Amino acid sequence: MKETKLIIKKNFIKKFKGGYPLIFKDAILNINDLKEEGDIVSLVDDQNKFIARGYYGKQNKGYGWVLTLHEKENIDENLFLKKIKIAIEKRKSFYDSKDTNAFRVFNGEGDGIGGFTIDNFDGYYVINWYSRGIYKFKEAIIKVFKSIVEYKGIYQKRRFDTNGMVIEEDSFICGSEADEPLIVKENGVNFAIYLNEGAMVGVFLDQREVRKAIRDQYCKGKTVLNTFSYTGAFSVFAALGEASKTTSVDLANRSLSKTIENFSINNIDYEAQDIVVEDVFGYFKYANKKNMKFDVVVLDPPSFAQSKKNRFSAAKDYKDLLKSIIEITERKGLIVASTNCATFDMKKFKEFIKQAFIETGKKYEILEEHNLPKDFATIDSFPEGNYLKVVFIRIK
Ligand code: SAH
Predict the structure, then answer these.
(1) CA-230 nearest atom, ligand 1
(2) Do 61 and 122 fall within a single domain?
(3) Domain termination site, one of 68, 85, 117
(4) In Å, how far from its chain's centre is CA 314?
(5) What pLDDT score was predicted for residue 163?
(6) pLDDT, tens digit, for every residue of 82-130?
(7) Which residue in 58, 181, 279, 368 has a CA-CA distance of 20 to 30 Å to 78?
(8) Last residue of some domain: 47, 68, 89?
(9) Given a cut of 80, is residue 170 above it in pLDDT?
(10) pLDDT above 70 as % of the chain
């Protein structure tokens, strides 16, 4: 197969040899030689000596992914088969689980092929494609996948173009179509999933461990505020953990019916819970005016958000958001602070937390920290792939 040779600058050679998978602009001397996404590339030094092989695909700031460090290994069905097979085997404990049937089976570069992920929702699989480049390998990847996995149905989401928005709504590929909603289980709890409604299907699987901790350890008899609540997943777990009451706040209209639905399919009386469709920043003002305080507050905002009145960027505004949250949390209360923003790491996130407490003049203690769960495989050579950061903070 024809390959484009990319000459790697001297000071980055070691990085790639050490397993760094992302092909990035600064490392390449002849970036203009890249022609078409999906083209195979080999990384070479200035003596034309082989370093690694991958493909060209634009994803965020990257220009593609390294798939092998072996000169003799080609990028073909065999390679896809090998990597996907290993990934599936790694998830055996999830496949064997009786009370969880929604989990990630392939996590991009963490499983050896950057650019796509596959999630399992009780036998219905959803493939997310993150670049035009990886999408060129679609047929080979799906063929290999079908040959090793028993599936009820397969869906896909194309998540490149138009700022990460899904451009293809009707994403069913093959097998049978899932019920709408499809009810899946996570640690014994039901979730309503909609596989045909774009990128967000109803639950973020990477928060599984956090939801479990909230249910099992922190909510009994407590009032719980869930901000940026989406479909109310944290609220459902809190209610099942015997919270005295949950309050879910999200500005999207759809969050109301979806949160009611998730309470209902878990036999929770939704009328005993508060579900508020409002901008959280507006809700803070209301809560302050009424002098409301909560025992447990969950804070899991998107990395970027734009509402009519407010614009939020986690990297810039998380500290201020946390300050508002501290004001409405009881003394000795718990804040579960979470972010999936990939532009800063846990160390920086803890700095935001520290600063927010300094500025509010309160003391705190960190009880738990979480990153991505096991099914969201990551590799040591690419720590930025472990984007999830969750800190359980006890106010003193
Ligand atoms: N914490 C949720 C996921 C949050 S997704 C969970 O674990 O399931 C982000 C959510 O934030 C979306 O539902 C979006 O509607 C909501 N959102 C964005 N900006 C908001 C704002 N200013 N006020 C309230 N909700 C907001």
Answers:
(1) 13
(2) no
(3) 68
(4) 15
(5) 58
(6) 999 999 999 999 999 999 999 999 999 999 999 999 999 999 999 999 9
(7) 58
(8) 68
(9) no
(10) 97
Structural domain contains residue 383:
yes
Nearest protein Cα to ligand 1, atom 15: 252
CA of 231 to the centre of ligand 1 (A): 9
Among 184, 200, 251, 309, residue to substitute to test ligand 1 (most atoms within 8 Å of Cβ) = 251
53 with 116, same domain: the answer is no
Both 83 and 63 in one domain: the answer is no
Element (H, E) at 211: helix 208-213
What CATH number did the domain enclosing 47 receive? 2.30.130.10
Q: Quote the number of domains for the chain.
A: 3
Distance 115 CA to ligand 1 centre (A): 25
Q: Are the beta carbons of 67 and 77 closer than 8 angstroms?
A: no
pLDDT digits (tens, 9 = 90+) for 292-345: 999 999 999 999 988 788 889 999 999 999 999 999 999 999 999 999 999 999
Query: What CA–CA distances, in Å, run from 19 to 84, 89, 112, 347?
Result: 18, 22, 10, 23
Pairing state between β 245-250 and 274-277: parallel
Same domain, 181 and 36: no
Domain of residue 302, residue span: 204-395
Residue 165 has pLDDT above 80, yes or no: no
Q: Do 183 and 307 sit in the same domain of this protein?
A: no
* Length reported for the chain: 396
pTM for the complete prediction? 0.96
